[in-house]
Amino acid sequence: MTPAITASTLPADWRDLLALTKPRVMSLVVFTGLCGLLAAPVPVHPVLGFAAILCIALGAGGAAALNQWYEADLDAKMKRTRNRPLPAGRLDRQSALHFAVGLSVFSVILMDLAANHLAALWLAISILFYVGVYTVWLKRRTPQNIVIGGAAGAFPPLIGWVAATGHVDLLPMLLFALIFLWTPPHFWALSLFVRSDYANAGVPMLPVVAGFQHTRRQVALYTLPMSAAAVAPWALGLTGPIYGVAATLLSGAFLLLALQVAASRETDPAAMRPERRLFAFSIIYLFAIFGALVVDRWLLA
């Protein structure tokens, strides 16, 4: 008989601690935070700018680690997450909790010292929202978990901007709205072809409780206000034509893919090509649109 996998038989190393921070997700968080900082209309000392982005990375990593600590039982039931350090038994829960809390608290303190009180406050709010509101309260209770919980991932550009300027403006609020509205179609596209994973774990994602077609329609519907939020900075004169053209073309491509998802009737996850294309493009979309923002601000400043 194969012995049970425990933390004592598979000791953790630095890679397991890194995995707790969800580095692939963190890369998008750090990038949007960096773009928020670079788009701010004030010069930022490179050392202080680096410290602010490091704080956003550490805060995001700490929140992700707390998420994995709390959801270890769910992760063990899903094929795509069961090899994470906690469900695989490579790390004990107490060590994970200490690591997660330490990262989170340190990130807020360092942000307060390196940038300003308001940036530290927004960072603390983002961590608490992701852990307390999304992970603990919403995820296991409602199919609206991603809709409301999407705010957690929308904070980084706002935090980056506030770290640079010390105050909140309309542009970072629109960037917040863009990511907030981007989150549902992004995650619902994923949940369509990993529906069985969520069903097995008892997570009430939209395809599990409302079916494939309703979810596909919601993907297309949410793309409309997302596209409006993306183009709004240009329409309101807050950015130049480089951003405006990029936002328009990228959002048009996103909408086209979303309509293909809405038209699909496929129920076999292996054959859900429109859903997979939209999920992959949604990541490129956010990187590209925020990259265009920085190019626009720097070239046209």
Automatic annotation (TrEMBL):
One of its GO terms (biological process) is heme O biosynthetic process. Pathway: Porphyrin-containing compound metabolism; heme O biosynthesis; heme O from protoheme: step 1/1. Keywords: Cell membrane, Heme biosynthesis, Membrane, Transferase, Transmembrane, Transmembrane helix. The chain crosses the membrane at residues 25-44, 50-70, 91-111, 117-138, 145-164, 170-190, 219-236, 242-259, 279-300. Belongs to the UbiA prenyltransferase family. Protoheme IX farnesyltransferase subfamily. Its main location: membrane. Its EC number is 2.5.1.141. It comes from Sphingomonas ginkgonis. It is a multi-pass membrane protein. Carbon 2 of the heme B porphyrin ring is defined according to the Fischer nomenclature. This is Protoheme IX farnesyltransferase. Pfam families: UbiA. Converts heme B (protoheme IX) to heme O by substitution of the vinyl group on carbon 2 of heme B porphyrin ring with a hydroxyethyl farnesyl side group. It catalyses: heme b + (2E,6E)-farnesyl diphosphate + H2O = Fe(II)-heme o + diphosphate.
